[in-house]
Design the sequence.
């Protein structure tokens, strides 16, 4: 039964990513996220620090959960980890192509997510924006991508 915490946490993390992106990254921590919207030279961005904001709780939950005999915290930590891996693949590899894998995918889901993210990036200021989610984006982008397949 504890295994159900992994997919439940994964789904909850999509909401958390949306909330953090809209209200934290485009809010009081814009100074860390700004370089993600206003491209600057170099591989790393100040924005990359947000990786730690999710990775550290995941690591601590897994570690303390294991120290307590593999209690529920392990499974919550694994759900956060799974979302983090998915985020890395979708955001850094598929969308921004920081790594040169999956460059020529024609998958309709990948195209929809990529288009929604590009729409988000057309805004250069913290006050503006739309499409703050990562895996779940407005249906219009799925419909467009499905028609083009």
Sequence:
């Amino acid at each position: 039964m504890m295994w159900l915490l992994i997919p439940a946490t994964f789904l909850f993390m999509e909401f958390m990513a949306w909330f953090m992106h809209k209200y934290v990254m485009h809010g009081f921590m814009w100074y860390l996220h700004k370089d993600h919207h206003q491209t600057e030279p170099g591989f790393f961005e100040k924005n990359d620090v947000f990786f730690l904001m999710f990775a550290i709780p995941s690591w601590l939950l897994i570690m303390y959960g294991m120290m307590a005999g593999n209690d529920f915290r392990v499974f919550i930590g694994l759900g956060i980890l799974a979302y983090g891996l998915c985020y890395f693949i979708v955001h850094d590899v598929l969308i921004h192509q920081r790594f040169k894998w999956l460059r020529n995918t024609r998958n309709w889901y990948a195209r929809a997510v990529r288009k929604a993210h590009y729409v988000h990036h057309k805004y250069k200021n913290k006050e503006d924006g739309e499409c703050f989610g990562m895996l779940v984006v407005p249906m219009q982008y799925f419909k467009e991508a499905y028609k083009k397949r």
